[in-house]
Amino acid sequence: MGTRTSHEAEAADDAVNVAVNADITADVAVIGGGVIGHGIAFEASRAGRSVVLIDDAPGSGASWAAAGMLAPVSELHYQEEQLLELMLESSRLWPAFAAAIDAAASLETTAPGSATGTGYVTTPTLAVGADAADRRALADLRLAQQACGLTVEPLTVREARGREPLLSPAISCAFDIPADHQVDPRLLVARLGELLDAEGRNSFVRRRAAGLLWEGGRVAGVRLTGGGSVRATETVVANGLGAATLDGLPPGLVLPLRPVYGDILRLRVPGHLRPLVTATVRGMVRGVPVYIVPRQDGTVVIGATQREDGPVHPHAVSAGGIYQLLRDAQQLVPAVAELELLEATARARPGTPDNAPLLGRAADPDGGDVSGLIIATGFFRHGVLLTPAAAAVARQLIDGTSDPRWEGFRPDRFSRVPGASGDSPTKEAA
Amino acid sequence: MGTRTSHEAEAADDAVNVAVNADITADVAVIGGGVIGHGIAFEASRAGRSVVLIDDAPGSGASWAAAGMLAPVSELHYQEEQLLELMLESSRLWPAFAAAIDAAASLETTAPGSATGTGYVTTPTLAVGADAADRRALADLRLAQQACGLTVEPLTVREARGREPLLSPAISCAFDIPADHQVDPRLLVARLGELLDAEGRNSFVRRRAAGLLWEGGRVAGVRLTGGGSVRATETVVANGLGAATLDGLPPGLVLPLRPVYGDILRLRVPGHLRPLVTATVRGMVRGVPVYIVPRQDGTVVIGATQREDGPVHPHAVSAGGIYQLLRDAQQLVPAVAELELLEATARARPGTPDNAPLLGRAADPDGGDVSGLIIATGFFRHGVLLTPAAAAVARQLIDGTSDPRWEGFRPDRFSRVPGASGDSPTKEAA
User: Fold this and answer.
1) Rounded distance, CA B1 to CA A411, Å?
2) Helical H runs in A205-281?
3) Residue A307 CB neighbours (<10 A)
4) Does pTM top 0.90 for this prediction?
5) Which residues of A fall within a CB distance of 8 Å from B264?
6) Three-state SS for A325?
7) Which residues, listed in sequence order, are joined to residue B225 by a DSSP beta bridge?
8) How many interface pairs between A and B have CB atoms less than 8 angstroms apart?
9) CB of A84 closer than 8 Å to CB of A73
10) Tell me: the pLDDT tens digits for B157-175?
11) How distant is the Cα of A181 from the closest Cα of chain B, in angstroms?
C-alpha cells in the first residue's frame, strides 16, 4: 500500500550524494541509515570525524514504523534492570541531543513541550487502562516502576479527562508519567541526514553493504554490493536485522537477531477534533497494549502490535493487527473512529534473546577486541529512545575509551568466542 | 495513503493520447471516464462512431472503489421495481458485453466461472447472516426477492461451509444466489480504454470538461477547462457527481446528485489460505452489510460501508469504516485477520433521491428533447452492473430510437421543465 510508495518518495527526497563503484575513505563508515546509524554518524561527525553512511534506502526500515516514544518508564519490563539503566541514561541525554540537532540546524531551541525540528516534545505520557484487570496490571507495573525509583502518579478518571477530554469515560484508570516524552523518528532521520550532508567531509553511499573488509587482522572498511568499497578506520554495523547476515563478521561472532513485526497507523485528525489528545496515551486494553501518539502536524500515530510470526513479505501489513489497533484505540478514545487513515505501515524490529541491544566491540580470538569494528544493533522496541546513548557509546569507543556500565551489552555475549563475556545483561523473566 | 498514488500510477499507465488546447470534432463526446463513460464510448465506437472521451483522471472516481458485484438479486430494495427491471436487463446483457470486450481484445472467451480480461466471472454469490436477526432479515428479503421471480436458495451452514470451508461455523444462515456475478471494475476500465484507443478515429482528452457548448439551440459539444473544445453531434454527460455542476446544462434541468461515500479494502491472501473464498460472500452482520469479493489474482476486496456524512476531504478513508469492515468480515471469515492489507480507498458515489440513475435525454422548454445531449449519471451503487444497459440505452438514443421501458429514468424527472415527466420511477419505501 501507500507505505512503500511514500517511504520511497521520502527516501528520494533525502537523496544527497550517491557514490557508485567509487572507493571512498573516511574516518568512520556506518552501515545502516536508521535512527541508530544516523545518530552515531552525527555524533562522530560532531567530534570532527569524516563519516560515510551506507544504506540503499535510509530510514525505511524499523525507524520508518517507529512511533518515537521516549519511554524508559512505560517500557520497563521485569528483570531488565541493566537495560533500564541504559534507557534512563539515554532519556537524560535526549534534551541535549535534540538541542544539538536544533542548534546545528540553526533552529531555535523552543520551550519545553513545544515541537522542535525533530518533533521532540517533553509533554508527559498518560497510561490508561480499559477494564478492571488492566487497572490491576498497570497498578502492579507501577509498583515495579516505583521500586526502580520512577515516578508514576495515579490520576482519577475525572482528572485524566480534564486533561484529555476525548478520553472515554469508561476507562478504568489513568496514571501520569512525566518522564516519558516523544520525538518524530522520520523527522529525526531527515534532520540528521541534512546535518551530515552539510559537512563537506561526509558522504552517503546509497548502496547495500555486502560485508566487512579485513586487512592485517582488523576491519578496514566495507565491501559494497555491486563492487566498490569504503575504507575506514572504524566501521559501525548499525543495519538492524541485516547485521546478522553481513559477510566477514569476526569468526565465531553470532548476532542472534530475530524479526519482531509491528504495525502502525498514521491518521489525520479532522479540524473539529484537534487536538485529539495532547499527551501520548499508552493504553492497556484487555491486557493488550496500544498507544496513541499526537504529532505536531495534526496527525496521530497508533501502534503497539507486536507479531513474532513472519508476515507474507517483510512489509506486509496485517489486517488483524490493524483491526485490533483501531478497536483498542477506539475503546480508549472513541473519536478515533472519525479520523482519516493516511497510512498503515509494518516493519520488522531487530529483537535479541534478552531484548537488550548488541552494542560495543566484539572479542578477538587472541583475547582482545577486534580492531576497527563497532556493533550497534538489536535495539528492538527501543531504538529511538536509545539513539543518543548508542551515539555516545560509539563515540567513546571511536575515541578509544569506554564506559564499564555498558560492558554487559557487548555484542559477543551470545557467542562462543574466546574472550567474550557469554553473560546476558538482563535475564528473561521466570 | 497509497490509494491515490496507485490510481495515479494506473491513470498514467492508460494514458493514450492527450489533446491540449486543440479543437477536436467527433460523432460522440463522452464527458467522464468511469465505467459508465467508458461503456458508452465503447458501445458507440462499436457502432462505427468516432468518440472522444474527456476526463482528467479516467477511472479514478467511484469506479476506482467499486467492488464490481453484478448483483441484481442481492441489491433488490423494496419499492424499486423499475430499477430492478433495469438491473435484470443489464445482468442479461453482461455475458455478451464481456464477450464483446474479450473478442475485441482478441482474448478467448473462457468457460463460465473462469476469469476473462475484465475479471468477469459467473460464479454464484453466497449471502450469509451473522446472528438470528440477520437470518430473519435475509429470510424476509428472500420473500421479496422470490416475489420478484428471483432465485435465492437456502443452504445449511454445513452446505455453505462445504463450499467455502473458511466461513465461520458461527454464521446463522446462508443462501445461494446463482444470478449474482462479478467483474473487476479496474480491469474493465483498462480494457475498454485500450479498445477505444485501438480505433484510430477515437481520442482521449485528459482534461476536465468546463461545460456544454451550445449552437443553434442544441448542444454541439464540450468546452474544456483551460480553453479549447470538443465538437460533437452527441454529447454524453457521464461524469458522476461532476454532472450537476457542469456549466451550460439545459435551462431548468436540475441533477439532484449527492455524494454517498464508501470505503473499500483490498487485501492479499497468503498462499496457505488461497482461495479464501471462491464465491462472493455478501454478509449481514448485526444488520450491517459487508461483502468479500475474491479476485482472480489472489486478492480480495472487502467493502460495503456507506456514509452520507462528508469526509475530511473527498478521498479520506474513515478509520471507523475500516474498523467496521474488518470486524464484520472477520466475523464471517475469521481468516481475514491473516490477510495483508494492500489498499484502503474511499470514493463518493453519485446518489439520487430515488436511488435510480439519471439516464436519457432532457426536456427542452419547447416541448421536445434537447438535441445533441444525453445524460448518464446517478448510478449510485449500481454503476458497474448497469454499464451494459447504460451503453445500450445511449446507443439507441444516438441511433435515434429509444426503449419506452426506461422512460422513467429520464434525467429531468426531478426538474420543473415543461415537458419533463416529473415522476420518479421508483418511490422511496414508506
Assistant:
1) 39
2) none
3) 16
4) no
5) none
6) helix
7) none
8) 104
9) no
10) 999 999 999 999 999 999 9
11) 26
Task: Return contacts of A109-115, CB within 8 angstroms, 24+ apart.
Answer: A115/A296
| Residue A420 contacts residue A365 (beta carbons within 8 Å) | no
Is A411 within 8 Å of A57 (Cβ atoms)? no
Longest dimension (CA), chain B: 67
Of the candidates A380, A363, A305, the one whose C-alpha atom is nearest the C-alpha of residue A86 is: A380
User: Taking Cα atoms as reference points, which of A327, A407, A381, A389 lies closest to residue A65?
Assistant: A381
A267 → closest Cβ in B3, B319, B326:
B319
Please choose, from the candidates A124, A151, A37, A48, the residue with its C-alpha nearest in 3D space to the C-alpha of residue A386. A37
Per the structure block, which three cell numbers stand in for B126? 453466497
- Using a CB-CB cut-off of 8 Å, the residues of chain B touching A327 are 323, 327
Rounded to the nearest angstrom, the gap between the alpha carbon of residue B73 and the centroid of all alpha carbons in its chain is 16
**Identity (one letter) of the amino acid at A333?**
V
Can you list the alpha helix ranges (DSSP code H) found in A337-407?
Answer: 387-398
Rounded-to-integer distance, Cα A378 and Cα A362, Å: 14
| Cα–Cα distance measured from residue A213 to residue B133, given in angstroms and rounded to the nearest whole number | 69
Q: Identify all chain A residues contacting B4, using CB atoms and an 8 Å cutoff.
A: 2
Q: Which residues, other chains included, contact B60 with Cβ-Cβ below 8 Å and sequence gap of 6+?
A: B7, B8, B10, B11
CB contact under 8 Å between A268 and B320, yes or no, is: no
Query: Rounded to whole angstroms, how far apart are CA atoms A37 and A30?
Result: 6
Look up residue A330 and give its three cell numbers.
Answer: 477506539
Is the complex ipTM higher than 0.85?
A: no
User: Does the beta-carbon distance from A337 to B322 stay under 8 Å?
Assistant: no
- How close, in Å, is residue B82 to chain A by CA atoms? 37
Q: In the numeric block, which cell numbers belong to residue B77?
A: 430494495
Decide if pLDDT at A20 tops 60. no
Quote the CA–CA distance of A198 and B384 in Å, as a whole number: 55
Q: A169 φ, ψ to 5°?
A: -70, -10
B116 band by pLDDT with thresholds 50, 70 and 90: low
C-beta atoms of A317 and B336 within 8 A: no
What the block records as the C-alpha cell of B170 is 458461527
Q: How confident is the model at residue A306 (pLDDT cuts 50, 70, 90)?
A: confident
Contact yes or no for A1 and B344 at CB 8 A:
yes
Is A312 in Cβ contact with B319 (below 8 Å)?
no
pLDDT tens per residue across span A341-398: 999 998 999 999 999 999 999 999 888 999 999 999 999 999 999 999 999 999 999 9
Residue A323: which of B312, B316, B326 has the nearest Cβ? B326
3-state helix, strand, coil in chain B (%, to 5): 30, 25, 40
Residues of B with CB under 8 A from a CB of A: 1-6, 265, 267-268, 270-271, 311-313, 316-320, 322-323, 326-327, 330, 336-344
User: Phi-psi bin for A203: left (phi > 0), alpha (psi -120 to 50), beta?
Assistant: beta
Is B354:A354 a contact under the CB 8 Å cutoff?
Answer: no
Which chain A residues are Cβ-neighbours of B305 within 8 angstroms?
A: none
Partners of B283 in beta bridges: B128, B290
Which distant-in-sequence residues (6+ apart) come within 8 Å of A101 by Cβ? A42, A116, A117, A118, A188, A191, A192, A195
**β-bridge pairing A280-285 and A125-129:** parallel
CA–CA distance from A392 to each of A94, A240, A357, A376 (Å)?
Answer: 11, 18, 14, 11
Mutation site for A-interface testing, chosen from B1, B324, B332, B347 by largest number of A Cβ within 10 Å: B1
DSSP letter for B185, please.
Answer: H
Dist CA A357 CA A51 (whole Å): 23
* Nearest CB neighbour to B2, from listed A2, A337, A338: A2
In DSSP notation, A165-203 reads TTS-TT--EEEEETT-EE--HHHHHHHHHHHHHHSTT-E
**Residue whose grid cell is 523518528:** A185
